[in-house]
Design brief:
InterPro entries: Gram-neg_bact_OMP, Gram_neg_porin_domain, Porin_dom_sf. Keywords: Cell outer membrane, Ion transport, Membrane, Porin, Signal, Transmembrane, Transmembrane beta strand, Transport. It is built from 3 helices and 19 strands. The protein has 383 residues and is mainly β. Strands 1-3-4-5-6-7-8-9-10-13-14-15-16-17-18-19 form a 16-stranded antiparallel barrel. A two-stranded antiparallel ribbon has the order 11-12. A hairpin with a 4-residue loop joins strand 17 and strand 18. The termini are far apart.
C-alpha cells in the first residue's frame, strides 16, 4: 500500500471516529434567596427560598454531517435542603430523546415543556416575551398573568431551524400524565408557537388545546350519585391563544408585550378549578369547567451599566369560573413586579426583587387574599 493510500485510509477512519464521538455536558444552576412575604390577615413571613435550582445533562452524538442524536436529562432540587424537587422522579424537569437534522430541525420524544411553555429546550412561546425571562416565580414572571402549558409526559415536539427569521414549533402529548390507551381522548395536549424576528423586533404567537376527556369513577366520592358523577366527569377542553412582541428599542432598552385569551383553562397559577372539592370530597378534578378570560403582560429590561440591569413588569387578568355547583365566579388580578440584577461574573449574579399583587372578586379565595407583597434578595450561579 502506497503512503498516499495509507494516509487517505487513516483520514477516513479518523473522520468516522470523530462523528461517532458522544459529547456529554453537565450543567446546572444553584439559586437561593431570602424572601419576605405578607398576605392579608397574616403575619409577615421571612424564609429561605429555592429558586428553581437544577442540574442536567446534554448529550449529543453526531451521526454524520447532517444528522445527530440528542438527549436531555434535567432534575430539580431544593438548594436550601438538598431534597429533589419531585420525590421519586429522577428527571422531572425533562427527559428527552431527540433526532436533529440541519435542514428540518429537531424532533424530540419524552417528558418536556410544550413549545408554548416557559420550559427549555422547546419552549419558544412565552419565554421570548417575558421581561423576567421566566425567573423568580409567578409573582414576577409572565405566568402570573398569562396561563402557561407546563410540562407533559409522552410528548412529541418538532422545532424548526430559523428560516429567514421564522421559527415554528409544534408539540403533541399522547398522555399528559400517563398514556391511557382505553380512552384515547384523555389528557391529550397540542401546542403551536411561531416566532418571526426581523431586525430589533420579534413577533410571537400561538396557542394550545388540552383534551381532558372523562374522569374515572375512582375520582369521585362513593356517596355521589351516578347522575352527578356523569355531569361532572366529562371535563371540557381547555384552549388558549396568545400573541406578543419583544422590541430592542435601543442598545440598552428592551420592551415586551403579551396578550392571551383562555377558555376552560385549568392550570392558571392563581385560579385552579381542578383543586375545587366536589360536595366536600377531596378529589382534585371535580369540575367540568375551567377559567374563561383574558390577560395582558407588559414590561421592560433596562441596562443601567455593564453589569446592572433593571427589570419591570405589569400584568392584568380578567376571568370567570363556573363552579361545579353551577355558580359563576368573577375575578380580576392586577400585579406589578420589579428587580435589579447585578452580574458579578458571566456565571454568577445577585438580585433584589419586589412584587405586589391585588386580587378582586372571587379570585381572592383562590389566591390567598386581596393584597400580596413579596420581596427577595438572592444569588444565582450557573455551572
Amino acid at each position: 500500500m502506497t503512503k498516499l493510500k495509507l494516509t487517505a485510509l487513516l483520514a477516513c477512519m479518523l473522520s468516522s471516529v470523530a462523528y461517532a464521538d458522544t459529547d456529554v455536558k453537565l450543567y446546572g444552576k444553584v439559586d437561593l434567596a431570602m424572601q419576605y412575604m405578607k398576605a392579608p390577615g397574616k403575619s409577615a413571613v421571612v424564609s429561605m427560598e429555592n429558586q428553581t435550582s437544577r442540574w442536567g445533562l446534554m448529550i449529543k452524538e453526531q451521526l454524520n454531517a447532517d444528522w445527530a442524536v440528542k438527549a436531555y436529562l434535567e432534575a430539580g432540587f431544593s438548594a436550601d435542603t438538598g431534597a429533589e424537587s419531585t420525590a421519586g422522579v429522577a428527571f422531572a424537569r425533562r427527559s428527552i430523546l431527540a433526532i436533529y437534522n440541519d435542514k428540518i430541525g429537531e424532533i424530540g420524544f419524552g417528558r418536556m415543556g410544550t413549545v408554548q411553555s416557559i420550559s427549555s429546550p422547546y419552549g419558544i412561546g412565552l419565554p421570548n416575551i417575558d421581561p423576567f425571562r421566566t425567573a423568580y416565580g409567578p409573582a414576577y414572571e409572565i405566568e402570573g398573568s398569562i396561563a402557561g402549558d407546563g410540562r407533559v409526559n409522552n410528548a412529541i415536539a418538532w422545532l424548526s431551524n430559523k428560516m429567514n427569521g421564522l421559527r415554528i414549533g409544534v408539540s403533541y402529548s399522547l398522555g399528559t400524565d400517563s398514556d391511557d390507551r382505553t380512552v384515547p381522548q384523555n389528557n391529550r395536549a397540542i401546542s403551536l408557537a411561531v416566532n418571526y424576528e426581523v431586525g430589533p423586533l420579534l413577533i410571537d404567537f400561538g396557542g394550545s388545546q388540552f383534551r381532558w376527556g372523562k374522569l374515572p369513577a375512582s375520582s369521585f366520592s362513593k356517596t355521589m350519585s351516578k347522575a352527578d358523577a356523569a355531569k361532572l366527569g366529562n371535563r371540557k377542553n381547555s384552549e388558549e391563544y396568545f400573541a406578543g412582541f419583544r422590541l430592542n428599542a435601543t442598545d440598552s432598552t428592551t420592551l415586551y408585550f403579551a396578550a392571551q385569551y383562555m377558555k376552560n383553562w385549568r392550570t392558571f397559577y392563581y385560579w385552579m378549578p381542578k383543586n375545587e372539592a366536589v360536595k366536600g370530597d377531596s378529589t382534585t378534578a371535580g369540575n367540568q369547567n375551567g377559567v374563561d378570560g383574558w390577560g395582558l403582560n407588559l414590561g421592560f429590561r433596562q441596562k443601567l451599566s455593564g453589569n446592572l440591569t433593571w427589570v419591570g413588569a405589569a400584568g392584568y387578568t380578567d376571568a370567570s369560573l363556573k363552579t361545579a355547583q353551577g355558580v359563576k365566579e368573577n375575578g380580576e388580578r392586577l400585579r406589578f413586579a420589579t428587580a435589579l440584577e447585578y452580574s458579578l461574573t458571566k456565571r454568577t449574579s445577585v438580585y433584589a426583587t419586589a412584587a405586589y399583587g391585588r386580587n378582586y372578586g372571587q379570585l381572592i379565595k383562590y389566591s390567598g387574599g386581596k393584597n400580596l407583597y413579596t420581596g427577595m434578595v438572592g444569588m444565582a450561579h450557573w455551572f
